[in-house]
Design a protein that fits this description.
This protein has 399 residues and is α+β, with helices and mostly antiparallel strands. It folds into two domains: 4-179, Thermophilic metalloprotease-like (3-Layer(aba) Sandwich); 199-397, no CATH class. 33% of the residues lie in helices and 25% in strands. The chain has helices at 4-21, 41-53, 66-75, 78-81, 88-92, 115-137, 151-156, 161-171, 179-200, 284-290, 320-323, 354-360; strands at residues 31-36, 57-62, 97-102, 142-147, 202-208, 213-217, 225-226, 236-239, 247-252, 256-258, 261-263, 266-271, 274-279, 300-306, 332-338, 368-373, 378-383, 388-393, 396-397. The strands form four sheets. Strands 13-12-9-6-5-17-18-19 form an eight-stranded antiparallel beta sheet, covered by helices on one side. Strands 7-8-14-15-16 form a five-stranded antiparallel beta sheet, covered by helices on one side. Helix 1 packs across helix 2.
Amino acid sequence: MLKERDLERYADVLLWGLMTSRRERFRKKDLILIQYDHAALRLAEILYDRIIAAGMNPIQRQGLTVDMERSFYGKADGRQLVFQAPGEKEFYGNLHGRIYLHAPDSLTHLRKIDPVRICKAMVARKPLRDILEKREREGLHGWTLCTVPTSELAAQARTTPELYSEQIIRACYLDQRDPVSKWKAIRQEAIDIKRWLGGLEAAFIHCESERCDLKLTLGESRKWVGVSGHNIPSFELFVSPDWRGAEGTYYANLPSYRSGNYVEGVHLIFVGGVAVEIHAESGEAFAVKQLRMDRGASRIGEFSLTDKRFSRIDRFMADTLFDENFGGEHGNCHIAVGASYTDSYTGDPAAMTGALKRRLGFNDSALHWDLVNTENKTVTAHLKTGKRVIIYENGKFKH
């Protein structure tokens, strides 16, 4: 659905994202994993060629097909669900970079599978994710990802493949001769806003919209992060708050496609940092089981805001990567229930330990589920001095 020129520019932006995402510079002979769905094969080939030319070592892995996923989650016994191939931990422990190309052939093929089985497999793979996160904190690993349009994505977004592809091209600035320069400019503007947010020294923030009334304690040693190359596209600025300070209600008015299931109208009530009530207008049973995956799944790991001045995304895309960066008329906010990002820690990321995460209120979970609200909203920072400052209104940061 994307022309060769679009794919070449996409590869340019993805490689910029990969290089930007890692604190230490990449070197020749580094190992770079390219994970891709079948529909993204051509983009994977272009990236493979670029990585070879750069003197690094690409490793390609194609994702499971729809039938493979149905077989695995539907028929695997308890041991098979948690099975890890020999050498997998060693492999992850030596990776220097990872690019994931998301191009699904189905978004609802696991709707008849017991969500508990999906959760069990996710929890079993968490140690591998922990390895990569530790390497990233040490500056040894970087990653980025993108979405390649498919007929399934377009159908679930209720549009044509042509219009869906056009939205991706616009969102990633692939319609510009030098999209990387545009991304560099956006990143610089984001750095200025993050510096302003950090200088406010807010004790907590209050997010208010038609169906949201949520207070979040930022916590000790926190900073706002984002536009770091990790996601293409990514316009969001976010913080991993102290999960213990979450109080109030949150409503996700955009639907979610997650683990082969469709969920709409998620409504959460937080008391003492925990979602004590979990409701959904569609897919409630799945949502409840997701937030009971482990102890941290019902806590908040991220709060994010997208400025509509940066994002050209103006429609539902049935894809979290794009929906969490929705610009439109009012911008968006989203929370993630589950794992936090230690990027939001102001200290040395390499010094982050499990004990320090617990003391500072960084949440830990096998889950990380982004829930998006695009209602017109006001976000107010309550400063440690007692002063109040509106930081976000009418879809824009006030900086």
